[in-house]
Amino acid sequence: MSGRHGITHGGKYVMFRGGNTASDGVILLAEGGRDMILQAEWVGAKCDNRVGTPFEAPDAATLPGTVSVEFGVSSELPLVSFASVIDPSPVRIAGMADLSVRDGEAWRGAVTVPLWASDAGSDTGTSDKAENAETQLQRSPRLLTVALFFSDAGFSPVGQAVVTRLK
C-alpha cells in the first residue's frame, strides 16, 4: 500500500462510503496515486467547515509494516477517514470511512479497525494488468472478493488501523 491520505471531518463530508460513489479525489488517488484533487476537495470543504485536519502517513519501510501519524480532532469534527492505494491495481484502495473517535460525549481511548481491500468503483478492469476501462456510471466502493484476498482462514483484511487518543 502506498501513501495514506486522511482527513478529520463531520457528517457533512463524505470521502467514500458504501452506497455513495467515492469522491473524485479518491478516484484519482486510486487510479494513479494522484492526490492533488483530493487535496483541493479538502480546501473547499475546509472553507465550509466540513473538514478539519488533513494528514498523510508515510509508506511502511517493510511489508507487512507499521506506520504512525499524529493528527488533531475536535468535538465538532470527530470523524476520521483515509484511503491508501493498493499497488499495483486498477483502482484498489484500503481505507477507513467515517470512524468516530467519540462515544457520545466521551472521547474513545483506542479503536482498531480492519482494513479491507475495496474497489473504488471507477474502472471495470478485471486484473492488475488490465488496461484502463473506465466505468461510465461509477459504482460505490465495494469490498473486493477476489482470490488474492482469501486465505485458508477465509476473507482476509489487508491491514488494520489503530486510532489511539493521545493526551
Number of strands: 12
H-E order: EHHEEEEEEEEEEE
| Biggest sheet statistics | 6 strands, antiparallel
> Strand percentage, roughly?
25-35%
| Order of the strands making up the biggest sheet | 2-1-3-4-8-9
Outline the low-pLDDT stretches: none
- Global shape: globular
Task: Count the DSSP helices.
Answer: 2
Average pLDDT score: 79
> What oligomeric state is this?
single chain
Output the structural class: mainly beta
Radius of gyration over alpha carbons? 16 Å
Beginning-to-end CA distance, first to last residue? 29 Å
The percentage helix is 10-25%
Structure description:
The longest helix is centred in the N-terminal third of the chain and has 12 residues, at 36-47. The chain has helices at 24-32, 36-47, and strands spanning 2-9, 51-57, 79-85, 92-100, 102-103, 106-107, 110-115, 117-119, 142-143, 150-151, 154-155, 159-164. It is 13% helix and 34% strand. It has a six-stranded antiparallel beta sheet with strand order 2-1-3-4-8-9, covered by helices on one side. Strands 5-6 form a two-stranded antiparallel sheet. The chain is mostly beta strands and 167 residues long. The protein contains two helices and twelve strands, in the order βααβββββββββββ. The mean pLDDT is 79.
Task: Record keyword descriptors for this entry.
13% helix, 167 residues, two-stranded antiparallel sheet, mainly beta, six-stranded antiparallel β-sheet, single chain
